[in-house]
Amino acid sequence: MRLIPAVDIQGGKAVRLVEGDPERETVYFEDPVGAALYWQEQGADFLHVVDLDAAIGKGDNRRQIARIAGALEMPFEVGGGVRSLADAEAVLDLGAARVVIGTVLVRDPAESERMLAALGPERVVPSLDGRGLGLTVAGWQEEGAGDVLAAARRVAEAGFTSLIYTDVRRDGTLEGLDLEVIAKVREAWPHYLIAGGGIAGDEDLEGLERLGVDAAIAGKALYEGAVDGRRWWGGA
Prior knowledge:
alpha/beta; 11 helices
């Protein structure tokens, strides 16, 4: 299983939030380029970057993303505030390998399908974020957006071939994954599945492997040393 480190950017810094709350942040690197390079040096082969400010409509960190692209040798994806084809093209132009979309899947499915048609499934990855199986949108600030499982089936029917699922209730808490919920997402989604939200240690990653999940995104667990990424990247 692939382990993907996360670099979340807020106010130009690499941070981790608790349950997606922008007021509950821990700064891990003053410069997100340093965070990206650190995970590359540790052996990671792919990076998940989130522009938290863009996700909640409070500006963006595109300058920092361009700097990450200029410094890294490994590919990376970017999510947060990508809600139109123009947004997606702008992020890809910065040097990202692919974009991650979420809110647009719920609010404007036609636009998400236009993005898929223009860019292809290799460059556009849908992300469903939920408090359990209840969808959240707009940087996790708005609930009541529907059901994760129904949305996963719709996204598969639209032609997307990869999916990210994040459990907002647990993200940044180190409380461990809700594997029962993820098992339901695995059953509903027939293609490549990436999961995250609350990873507390290697046992969570092993649990994902048993469920047949293809990859995991980890943030705080890696930054705090609860997971040794080198075990998963082949360096230990």
